[in-house]
Amino acid sequence: MLQMILRKIDAYYTGANRFWIPILCGLFYSLCLPPFSGMSHPIFTPMPLLAFTVLIPIFYFATRTPRRRALIHTYICCGAMTLGQYYWIGFDTAKGYWGLILVGVVLISLVWGALYFVAALAFRYSMRRLPRLYVVVFPAVWVLVEYFRTTTDLAFPWSYIGYGAVGILPFAQLASVTGVWGLSYIIVFGNIALWELLRAYKSGGDKRRPLRGVIAWAALTLAIFAWGAVRMGGKAPKATVSKVAVMQSYMDQFNWGSGSLDTAVTVSDSMVKVAAKHKPDIIIFSEAALLCFLDRRPDIKQQVQAWAKNAGVPIVVGALHWERPSDKASVEKYDVYNTVFLVDVDSDSMRRYNKILLVPFSEIMPFEAQFPILSRVNLGGASFKRGKSESVFRVNENLEIAPYICYEIIFPDYVRRRLKESTNLLVNVTNDGWFGRSSGPYQHAVMAQTRSIENGITLARSANSGISMFVDPYGRITEKTGLYTRDMMVREIPLYRVKTLYNRFGDWFVWVCLGIAVLGGGAALFRPPRQNQTR
After folding, report:
1. Which CA distances in Å does 281 have to 9, 345, 495?
2. pLDDT, tens digit, 9 for 90 and up, residues 449-461
3. What does each C-alpha distance from 28 to 25, 31, 121 come to in angstroms?
4. What percent of the chain has pLDDT over 90?
């Protein structure tokens, strides 16, 4: 029965140039990622299991004949897969630049789609040259492709396939050992094992070897799941507790006008007064909660300092900052920073952290350090400078926080290396209002959730329009807000860290994958291709 269904599907696809099929299959990739998970609604709880199948269409297209059609349809599928990850960028309807933004979405899909296309070519090649070993070699290649997306000035490491597994939280505990990379490896391994079994059914060949591969993958996955469940079920150590207030003030930046700053100050003032009644140890506002140069606006600065003093609570708040260029040769009159401030109770000064990792095109022009003339190009984004100090904030004798602004939280190693042993709260402030009611806010939130698992640390996340949330060191969301609501959460946070292999050794698993890929590539060079691999 299964053989007949598979053959009919193959006949339908090969019977005509149905290019829309790879488009649909590429978009299918997004169904294993948020918002298709329990984070948005319990009905979507099983959806992350699709992660173990979403690459099978790419394998299918990459191994077809004739070769020209296989290459074209594979690239179309990879481009659609990327579009499903980044389409939400088009929700940024910046006045006068929406057309340019839509062009950018298409270009991003084509460029990053080409990277996945290279991975698909590697699959075709490794399957022919390493018919037995490619099951373990190709997942390593896929991890290296994902890791490459964290590098260069064009870095935008969004929606790795491993993030699909975070919806299966016991299994996601593997990230505490390998980082998100191990999740991606196991998922790709599972896709290949199922692909091999389906090929055997379609061809009517021997099913014993592919069935053993599926059993090995299932046993490994279940073992990881069982270990993760035991890990999550362990008794939490006794620890000092800190009460944290997270503000979701929700200011609609699409309708920001001349009076909006006053409104933001008024809203924030009222929220601080309500939060102060709960006597928290710290109050956290989002990125750009006060969209002004806070330290250069004495009137607003004094109000914010008054909030902290009157409430008796330190306040973290996102705003802008400028300084005179230290480089006398600079053509800019000011260096502008995306900043988070810590406003102390007993001090007239404000500590700050200037964002270091900036969003390509939106906040900085890629490669402008290497080619200064690019700093003169204006594509409608802001022209920010990179911060230099990887600051942490000592709030009191019990609480030390590491702040990350928006995009920074999606870089696993950058988050890891800033977390000192004494740091006991991971803070992510962001303004996800640009994403609209799309998958973007959910995907961004799950990446922040993964950083908690990797580093064994509690997360407090404040997003201007949502999703704000508290996450424990095992990745459990203990409380969260909805999208586009004005809300606050006040919660007691146990200040303990869970030791993790990933936090100690970083991206060691990427190096393992590099070794596997190099050895596999060397072996492939000395093996003749196996024939008839495309049927």
Report:
1. 60, 11, 12
2. 999 999 999 999 9
3. 5, 6, 20
4. 67
The token duo for 197 is: 């079994």
Beta bridge partners of 283: 245, 315
DSSP type of residue 387: P
Paired tokens of 521? 């590539």
Q: Model's pTM, two decimal places?
A: 0.93
Report the alpha-carbon distance of residue 197 to residue 42 in Å, rounded. Answer: 31
Radius of gyration of the chain (CA): 25
- Distant-in-sequence, close-in-space partners of 421: CB < 8 Å, separation ≥ 6: 497
Structure tokens at 193: 């094992």
Cα–Cα distances in angstroms (integers) from residue 514 to residues 49, 188, 305, 520, in the given order: 27, 16, 51, 10
Q: Could you report the per-residue pLDDT of 52-86, keeping only the tens digit for each?
A: 999 999 999 999 989 999 999 999 999 999 998 88
Q: Which of 353, 321, 362 is nearest to 104 (CA)?
A: 362
Determine how many CB atoms are found less than 10 A away from the CB of residue 382.
13
Domains with residue ranges and CATH for the chain: 2-234+507-525 (no CATH), 241-495 (3.60.110.10)
Name the nearest CA neighbour of 459 among 444, 441, 478, 440: 478
Q: Residue 32: what residue type?
A: C
Inter-CA distances, 23 with 18, 26, 71, 78, 440, Å: 10, 5, 14, 8, 20
For residue 262, what are its two tokens?
Answer: 């006053």
